[in-house]
Amino acid sequence: MRISTLVVLGVAWLAWNQTAAQEISDCSGPARPANCLFRFVTVSDPQPSPLKVKCASAAIAPRVPTVGTISRKTDCITTVNTALGPVEVVGDLFSVYAPGGTSLFVTLDSPPFQEYFGLPYIVIVNPDGDPVAAKVGTTPIGNGGNRAEINFAIPTTGKWFFLVTGIGGQLETPAGEYTTTADFVQVLRRRSARH
Amino acid sequence: MTPRYAKRLGSVSVGSATVDSWIVIRTDEVAPHDVIAKGFQRIPDQLSDDQVVEKYGVSEIITVTNEKLRVT
Question: What is the ipTM, given to two decimal places?
């Protein structure tokens, strides 16, 4: 079955199954249900140093950031271990040299059209290269109506990284089990229903 | 030139510094008002593709068909 067909079927299925949609929506609320696996994904087994993020493009902003200057690279990829196993993520890598105690706030909406309507996904990587926190949007619906937000207090002074992604089917296990974010969420929901 | 559009998807803020994340598309299939209705803004034709990529910090300008933009 073609991927595009799977996406269409997945979206139709989600729209039809209001109960499932409600389960997903509940994940964004303050009272996180026990079976909600994807509101805030705790990295259970951070990768060791050095930094595992690889980027295809050069930095756009200055290469040696000063305090408070945010740099960005595009087409970056890393793997984070989540409650669901390793997840490969592609996106823009931001970095900043920031004093401890600085607040970080990241928002990302889902792109507003098919095929690129991936889940907003934010990963915070510490100066040692370890992913320390991640936040995923709550539904696979496009139209820009899906947002991931993360508010993070930087604990120690150093160069921190933030991987921001969500465009295209980038959530994929090493085995390639999930080829689109819509499929990914469906599988999440099925697993969550079983547990 | 095929019309190009940009939409801000989010931002990264650290202290008082902010960097925005954008998506940039091009389409000659979709009516401009339909694209703008989805929150995109038209990019001036005077900007080259390279300038657009640099200005918005994107890795590519995505070609979008009417079918793709119709969405879910």
Answer: 0.76
